Please model this.
Amino acid sequence: MSEPSTTALPADRTRRSAVRIDDRMLSIGTVLLLGLLPIWIGSFWLYSISLLLAQGIAILSVSFLIRYSGEVSIGHNFFVATGAYTIALLQNGPNVPFLGGVVVATAVSAAVGLLFAWPSRTLSGVYLSVVTLALGLCVPEVLLYWSEVTGGFEGLFVESRIVGGVASGLQQYYVALAALCIATFVAHRFRGSRLGLMILTARDHPHAAAAFGMTSGSARLSAFAVSAAIAGFGGSILGFTTSMVSPNSFIFWNSVTLLVGAVVSLYSTRIYGVVVGAAFVTLVPQLLSNYGQFILIIYGLALLGVIIVFNVTVPAIVRRVRRRRNHRV
Amino acid sequence: MSDRASLIVKNVDLSFGGLHVLRDVSLDFQPGEITGLIGPNGAGKTSFFNCLTGHYRPSRGTVSYDGEVLNAVPTVGRADRGIVRTFQHAALSSELTLLENVIVGLNTARRSGWIDALLPIPRRFGDRDEAENRARRALEFVGLGDHAALLAANAAPGVMRLVELARAGVGDPRVVLLDEPAAGLNSTETAALADTIGKLRASGRIIIVVEHDMDLIMGICDRIHVLNFGAVVTSGTPAEIRCDPRVAEIYLGTGDD
Model:
């Protein structure tokens, strides 16, 4: 401790509050822009961006898990698939309406997440990641094994209209947008709740959280269940926007895509961050569809780039700026 | 819970394998008092402290509060009984602001659960505002009212200790356990800390401080217990401890300055 401690107490209230307003304005601006976008774009891009928004919810679920439990999952395609197949089965069987299906799909995914997280609640770091890897790899096999229920390779059809008289493309787009708004709103609001604060404390200092009434086990279970619920919610919306679900959409590769999106979005729970992450993983393969074999390399470079820039370069710059400022004072 | 409830440690032994860390320790802690625990490194202070927080379970003997034996009550359950603690290495979440870190101290007092966490119900139906106001008052109490929005990651060590005190005190606790609150602080910061610990004193409240810093202990405590080799060597007021030749001996002459 060479510096006098008083300099480490900046009265930065005004600066922080300005940053807050910027965050909110960026979110509102993003929603407005996305809301008006269908005026300018054709049906191809409308569909692409609908997918982007639905994919964004799934990316948010991975970011949420990383943020609140500090754990990395590479099996979240499992929970996305759970949500998507739940809504498809509910529509094809008992003919449950769309909204009811979404609610049930979200709840079922949360329950499945809890079921998975319970036995692995004491695992962390690379051990947990390996367990989620197993989960991610088994999705297509499970779906094909029960093909009389899941429709096998063909998959299941999902109704993509909820109101008559409006083009289904527009409906898919606005439902996906509304769903992403709801998901980011809930995820962001969660942080200030009693449970959100406790879970964040448990992530950084399990002993401190226990001393104030929450065990690290229940914090981890809670974070995983909410993350799985968001993933399932995203899955049900993804089923709606693609109007079908099939094993091909939920291969292990999708989990990697979600993780790449989460890293590129800097684990953001804000809508603009999520959209940037989702845009990267959905638009890059589309724009470079002629160079398919390079997409893996681009993903790898992006991961390296983002991780190095934000964990090494940016902190170094911040340190340098601070040092210079201290010299001047 | 009576206002005069005391914390009673009776015949506590603690051993790890063949290593006896605590031997037949019996101490009473009275409400309204600040009690200090001192002793050289390895004397068993931290082990004793961990028996109070529930981190360790005594091999023999009992720890009881208000007539209830706490031996089998886990750390989480002690929070419900109004027993709180601070940490030697400030255990604040770096991603949260000072205010949010203090709100964590209200966890067991709050009713809100999953509905408030996930559904967009208006703030006035939840207890977020109430918790925020209480936490803000606690921050003002420790003199950090102007820094509520500061991220814990950017706070100085002395500030973090004060925030830990605010977090421990915000829920109106019955027992406050302070684990080396002055470790790593300079003398200015320690003085501010001593002031604040003194202000935490309340009629029904037991405050226990484990500490190396003699000035802090002598300045704020009503009673001091001296531990060495896992046993209580002597107990008394700061003045008595200061003059006790056994204490000077334990500290090789540094105990009386």
